[in-house]
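#struct-help
A.M.: can someone run this one for me? Single chain, 353 residues.
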Amino acid sequence: MRFQSISFLVLIFIIFLRFYVTRPIFKNGDFIRITSKVYGEPIVYDRQQYIKIQGLKLYLPKYPEISYGDVIVVTGTVNGDKLTNPKLIELMTNSKGLLLEFRSKLISFYKASLPEPFSSLVAGVVIGSKNMPESFWEKLKQTGTAHIVVASGTNVTMTISFLIGLLTTFLKRKTAIWITLLGILGYVIISGFDAPIIRAGIMGSILLLGQEKGRIVNSWRLLIYSAVIMLLVKPTWLTDLGFILSFVATISLMLMQKKIDDRLKIIPAFFREGLSTSIAAQIGVAPIIYMTFGQFNILSPIINALILWTIPYIMIMGALGGVIGLIVPVLGRMILFVSFPFLSWFINILEIF
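D.P.: on it. Structure tokens below:
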């Protein structure tokens, strides 16, 4: 036990040391040139696109469009955590690999099969795409539901459940687990290397490895292990808002979701689960969101509860429709059309609030 404590303290020391050694040091007013691979899909607005590279936020013209996996060269002047007057010097869109090409084809199929914002909603829920109309993105932010239209822990959980359930029907569980681990890695790559999806991927992988070894892994240890692994690989996540919100929300859920759910027994189960989950998560993240952005929608837990139940249906039909649609387009579109009632409910709730 003492050895574990000492080892943990050593890891914490290494993380902080690496954070101060590896973080980019930019001074306000510096004119810099950055060459970087894009590890997250830019948010595309009507006239510009938002991207974050090496800890700096910048807005570039909408065209040429930058995609997840591209390599870009930009120049600009440092102003806090932003790059002002940024200029795209070079955009390299060489072959991105099989998985990223698959992602691009899925998004294109959704866009060709469904009108906006339905196509953006499906692409966001299934693979975390942020390429959507500015008006729709703003509604998501204002209602506190933007976190839903990105790949997250729910997506990883559903991916694991699907793969394990399918593979164990004709393979030994040990073999099924190892194939599922590869599936998790593939899904993380397709969905983008945002902190929430990586955290969920690591936690799911550790849990599966524990099952393969016949061990029960404590949920708190899972969370700590995932945080340590992520920060050892990329220490600058210490100041990343997505990383902070993901872990704070998870901690809030672990501490309070069941207690809140028990107090809401009078509410019907289909609504209660989403409401208790939303309230528990918001208790942790609301202060951070308010301090960061200066605003918070107090109706957010109710809005989330009204639409969370649609997410599994949208993801399942969106994923099936997309994959099948790349092979048999007509059949894929038919599956996507079945999801219309759930998509319409989601979008109408946003309109109402």
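A.M.: thanks! Residues 115 and 141 are 21 Å apart (CA to CA).
D.P.: also worth noting: The mean pLDDT is 82.
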